[in-house]
Amino acid sequence: MNKGQTMHRVAVALTLIAVALIAALPALSDNYLLRLGTMGAMYAILALSWNIIGGFAGYPSFSTAAFFGLGAYSGAILQGAGLPMPLAWVAAGLIAMAFATLLGLAILHLKGHYFAIASLVVAEVLLEITTSWTSLTGGGMGLNLPIIRISIDAQARLFFWSMLAIAVMALGMNYWVSRHRLGFGLMCIRQNEDAASMVGINTTLYKVTAFALSAVLVGAAGALYASWVFYIEPPDVFATLTSVKPIVMAMLGGAGTVLGPAIGAVLFLAMEELVWRNLLQIHAAALGLLIVALIFFLPGGLLGLVTGKRKRRVVAKKGETTSNSAVKGGAA
Amino acid sequence: MSPILELTNVTQRFGGLTAVDDVTLSVMPGEVVGLIGPNGAGKTTLVNVITGVYRGTGTIVFDGQRIEALKPYQISRLGVARTYQVVQPFPEMTALENVMAPATFAHAGVSLTTAREKAAEALDFVGLGAEKDKRASSLTLAGRKRLELAKSLAMEPKVLLLDEVNAGLNPAEIDVAVDLIRRIAARGVTIIIIEHLMKVVMNLCTRIVVLHHGAKIAEGAPDTVTSDPAVIEAYLGNRYAKRAAERAAAAAGGAHG
Ligand SMILES: Nc1ncnc2c1ncn2[C@@H]1O[C@H](COP(=O)(O)OP(=O)(O)OP(=O)(O)O)[C@@H](O)[C@H]1O
Ligand SMILES: [Mg+2]
Predict the structure, then answer these.
(1) Per CATH, is B1-79+159-168+194-257 categorized as 3.40.50.2300?
(2) Do B73 and A203 touch (CB under 8 A)?
(3) In this predicted complex, what is the ipTM?
(4) A318 near A255, Cβ under 8 Å?
(5) What residues does each domain of chain B span?
(6) For residue A239, what is the DSSP state?
(7) Do A184 and B151 touch (CB under 8 A)?
(8) Which residue of B53, B92, B105 is in closest CB contact with A199?
(9) Domain range for residue A325?
(10) Which helix (H) or strand (E) holds B216?
(11) pLDDT mean by block of 10 residues, chain A; 332 residues
């Protein structure tokens, strides 16, 4: 067994242990911690999902808020219509996925800034539609969800574990993509799309698949969020920050790596709680500074820093570590 | 025997510019065809039309199948590979990973493990075996040109389009590259080579096609084409013609003495 394989097994083992420990959080019976854990899992879902299209394929998507809001409203409306809660979450994920497939066919031929802006506009459009379609969505008044007949504590645990389960799925999805030809193809697309199609990659199919995968769990998380908070309104679930934060988290941990976005999500949440809670006025400024610092000083994310050192290379370009780990992993 | 590649009245326009002008061309299996012409003659554009990057007018038949409406990935999967005039590596990947990409995606159902073996083989073939773990962007120009070749070989093509694979190489590197192309042809791969160095063209090609302002102005055996006045006028220039004549005379004189 070579060193790469050993590292890989250690990483998998540590991840499983970490997940098990986090899953035991309700044992502390601290509601604040449990709420934080649910948020953290949700952030991890968003960041890991964005990673498929943004990290692997290199398409800077700002559609996370659109998928999240669409999922939240789909779940809320379906639950209101009597669909059992878990089924509503699944349906919301599928609806977000179908929406992303169509959206991807429409905008994934755009490159760089053009794609970014097109993807950003989508959430705004959905926000407008949701706000004006009062008969279905309650419009600006928002939407209440059906009451669940279990104790508050049981609810907190239920939502935490459900969110964590989706986060684990998101992690598994990234792991699978990174070792599958899909991930390899997306990496080629990120580095040189013309050359990618010339070596036989169906770039449209790969990009649309990546976009759909980046939406499905976000949609489900949106629905779960709606059930969790009992009340949603358009500006809350279609907030632009919901698109921006996952990108920052993924970059913080290492875009295009499997674990990076999850680690980034936890760090981001910690910063949000520890620092920004106390500096509410400069919240936006702090976020902006973090983004600038990331782009200039940590282009490979924290994981890039660690693995880059191990390989004794200067990390100059983002994604370096992925190309190696993903392909090596494929043969392991 | 039927042609492996057949172009009929292929035209490609960019706005008012006709980059490829009504080209009809047929290539038999196993041929090594030289495609020459001045800068801007439309040689690269013709390659781009054949490989599906541009969709011109006219028909293109590859191996008995119409391909002019297909996408680049479909055409390359059928067995048409190309190298780029400006090398197009996946810069952040190693040489091996670069070649694994075509080995993985050019044919259905290839596992990453098989692709890795094929890629290593192709790299050995082009003489890059020792540098397989280097990042593509850190290879020398000659190395990156050979990487392009290895990538196209890993697709196991029937037709290989080489766009100035020798540009920027020194004479020693060119000799290596020419030998390499000869060995690829010996494997039975049909080759269309775009090349400005006449020495290489004369050395390798069984037939030459000359483009000028997008149109085919001459076609035939190397000696016939290079002594064609229209070709000398449009591309080779009188200096080349004079030197070629001198060389021929010297060779004839040598034979007598
Ligand atoms: N995408 C494009 N859009 C507009 N014009 C183009 C495009 N591609 C090529 N051209 C023009 O078409 C003509 C033919 O270009 P092409 O690159 O095919 O020439 P070439 O024979 O390969 O030249 P060279 O020997 O310099 O490589 C040129 O005038 C070029 O400017
Ligand atoms: Mg050219």
Answers:
(1) no
(2) yes
(3) 0.82
(4) yes
(5) 1-79+159-168+194-257, 83-156
(6) -
(7) no
(8) B105
(9) 302-332
(10) strand B215-220
(11) 79 89 84 91 97 94 96 94 93 97 95 91 93 85 84 89 96 94 94 91 96 97 94 92 91 88 91 73 72 73 61 34 36 30
